[in-house]
Amino acid sequence: MQLLIWVDYKNIKIKMINTTLANNINDAFIDICKALYYHGKKVSPRGMETLELQNYLVEFDANADPTITIPERKLNIKYLSAELSWYKSGDPSISFISKYSTFWEKLTDNNNTVNSNYGKLALVDKYNGSNQYEWCMQQLLKDPNTRQAIINYNQPQHKYPTNKDFVCTIAQQFIVNEGKLDTIVFMRSNDLIYGFSYDVPWFNYLHKKLAKHTNLPLGSYRHFATSMHVYKRHFKMIEKVATKY
Questions:
Q1: Can you tell me the distance from the alpha carbon of 133 to that of 73, in angstroms, rounded to the nearest whole number?
Q2: What is the pLDDT of residue 4?
Q3: E-strand spans in the chain?
Q4: Which of 128, 163, 189, 200 is the most buried (most CB within 10 A)?
Q5: Residue 149 pLDDT > 60, yes or no?
Q6: Cα dihedral 141, 86, 201, 4 sign
Q7: What is the DSSP letter of 77?
Q8: DSSP, residue by residue, 125-138
Q9: What is the DSSP letter of 122?
Q10: CB burial class (10 A; 0-12, 13-18, 19+) of residue 149?
Q11: What is the pTM for the complete model shown?
């Protein structure tokens, strides 16, 4: 992990961002817990106390299983499977997913729908005849060196005063590097425990799906969060992880 180091090279100042380079998501999760526990700053957006590190980049092999399995952060696999199915359906209604978690009931609008069904945004909504996933596939097949294979999640339509579900993910880009398909996910805000833990499997799913459709080997999974944080109720959890491993 690199922490905010200024390097002056021939009068050019380079600021290193917070970086975790890991073999898999378990190692990445442990490293982020340590970074937040030892170096995180307390901030309180919307009055909720958090430990935060800004500009955090995580990278690991995309071939690795994206499911966290360490005992201190055991995922609800039933919910994770349901969330992936819900995303794949592209249905913004919470009728299905709320059976597995009441969390989504706090984010609904008047139509019992939410904005953060990532499958709707990536696989269902169409622009000029194609959904965003199809756009990425078309661009990569046409030009393997393209920088235009991007899925935009947070969109202008989400910017209204009464929005309770302002999408956390800005975008996901796919790019070929040394003959392999890499992806990078850009997050405006990422809660390590409920956000990062359950979001990565979806982005990894799309990454693997696109690699198959473009006949490219998988490369690296990268995940950049402007704000990587944990809420106060999880301070003890990250302390346990940070001091154990």
A1: 31
A2: 47
A3: 6-9, 12-15, 18-21, 41-43, 50-61, 126-127, 130-131, 150-152, 169-177, 180-187, 190-191, 218-231
A4: 200
A5: yes
A6: positive
A7: H
A8: -EETTEEHHHHHHH
A9: I
A10: buried
A11: 0.92
Token readout for 195 is 């956000």
**What six digits make up the tokens of 65?**
């299983």
pLDDT digits (tens, 9 = 90+) for 69-98: 999 998 999 999 999 999 999 999 999 999
Tens digit of each residue's pLDDT (9 = 90 or more) over 28-64: 999 999 999 999 999 999 999 999 999 999 999 999 9
Query: Measured on CA atoms in the order 173, 174, 177, 181, is the torsion positive or negative?
Result: positive
Ordered structural domains, the chain, with CATH: 6-244 (3.30.572.10)
Torsional sign, CA 228, 232, 234, 240: positive
Give the H or E element holding residue 212: helix 197-214
Residue 189 to residue 207: CA distance in whole angstroms: 21
Q: What is the pLDDT of residue 111?
A: 87
Spell out the residues 6+ positions from residue 159 whose beta carbon is closer than 8 angstroms to its own: 166
